[in-house]
Design a protein that fits this description.
Layout (H helix, E strand, L loop, with lengths): L3 E2 L5 H5 L6 E2 L8 H7 L17 H14 L3 E8 L2 E7 L9 E2 L4 H14 L23 H5 L2 H5 L11 H4 L6 H7 L14 H15 L3 H10 L24 E2 L1 H12 L3 E2 L2 E2 L3 H7 L13 E2 L5 E5 L3 E6 L4 E7 L7 H8 L13 H10 L2 E2 L7 E2 L3 H4 L3 E4 L6 E8 L3 E8 L2 E9 L3 E5 L15 E11 L2 E7 L6 E9 L2 E8 L11 E5 L1
Parallel strand pairs: 18-20
Antiparallel strand pairs: 1-14, 2-13, 3-4, 3-12, 5-6, 7-8, 9-10, 10-11, 11-12, 15-16, 15-24, 16-17, 17-18, 19-20, 20-21, 21-22, 22-23, 23-24
Amino acid sequence: MMAETDTGISRRGTFRLALGGAVLPAVSGWTEADAALAAPTDGLPRSPPERQGVASAAILAFLDDVEQTGFELQSFMLWRHGHVIAEGWWSPYRADRIHMMHSLTKSVTGCAAGLAIADGRFRLDDKVASFFPEHVPARIDDNLAAMSVEDLLTMRTGHASMVSGSVWRPIKTSWIAEFFKIPVVTRPGTNFVYTSAASYMLSAIVTRTTGQSLADYLKPRLFDPLGIEKYQWPAGPEDISPGANGLSWKTADSLKLGILHAQDGAWNGRQILPKTWTDAVQYPHVPNTYGYQWWLGPDGVFLADGLFSQLSFVFPRHSAVLAITAGIPEESHFNKFVYKHFPAAFADMAAKPGRDLAVLTARTTTLRLLPPARRSRSPIIGHVSGQAYQFAENPEQVKSMQFDFTADACIFTLQDHRGAHRIEVGLGRTIEGDTTMTGNKLHHEYELDRMRVVASGEWVDSRTFVMIWSFVETAFRDTVACVFEGPKLRFDRSVNVNSAETSLPTLTGRLA
């Protein structure tokens, strides 16, 4: 017997729940005043794009192309000539939510290094090994001894391959010690090898010379002046911030980072970063590739770039910045897609706001990633609700699961090696809450104590219950399929984007 649904959907259709952002129909009647009321309270002035020389039609063309290509944007903000001229968040993402930034964090760490150098804490030519004599090997080779702070900034450490943050995150002992275990196979300052290990050591050096974590050091010097609040940047071992990653903040904060650099380090008449530093970060220390913790693009563009397309593009020749959060696989070459539209959109069109602005405003205020949750029922709910399913030993260390159904919700509980984890799932609606659900293998090895989740569930047939867990402070969205077959439960979990596997092996449990 098929499940009862408001609108039918096949199991295959459920598993295809849009990778790219779907857009609701345009809403008529929106005005500039409406847009202003809907704008986030980030302290940045707003302006129609045409007043800053950008056609609304050009921004619409970008959004159309995003949708047609299937890229999953979760937010964007576009700034030019001192004003935010377009912005949007794909529901359930919102302007007031923080978002995990991955390696965009490196460019923030670059700010800390620049400020510490300006404060006289250390110099570009200081040797990395000199800061940590307690961790340096007893016999140090010439290449390691030659490695400088500037080599860390330019990713020319002499390492043969990169170290991802996902490698070090599970390690609870000193990451500085781990750094000094990496063979330095070439002379530092010669070969470019992008590695999170270099950015981590910049963070460690700032902490060693200032006595503060990066977050504490930057708060009065960068975050407070720019109005950046409610960020999260947990420290790792030895109370050192993971300088390569780990920072979560709002889309507007990524935009502000770019604006600060577009304005040569100045903010509201105050010099926050030395201009010499903002010049240095975009200088091609690695030709056509890298500056100081910033990537280089075409036409003078430079960008802070995080995994899955957490981005802040600076277009210095056009006084423009584009900030993006997304869930896009790394191999998708999304940056080249952006360059297809920008800076061409900055054509300095002499046009007044018109119909295209109304269409753009309606479009950007009605973005969503997934269709609305469907209400559905199954005749087996009474048989499975409240029952515990036990699992034999398995790689995920899952011990049991339980589903407790009500008229419009299901409380899903999973017990594993970390404890009991609970997600309240809406039926015919979404429910937002916090969870401790284990997810590291699908979430780039992040294992957070608390995650914000927006969850819904649907019976796609009489025995298959599919849950969607959107972890809305990250790029990750899990699809969880539960198939009930008599006393058995078959459990499959996958994710929209990851640096490793995007699905876990099927688990099979039995009624206790």
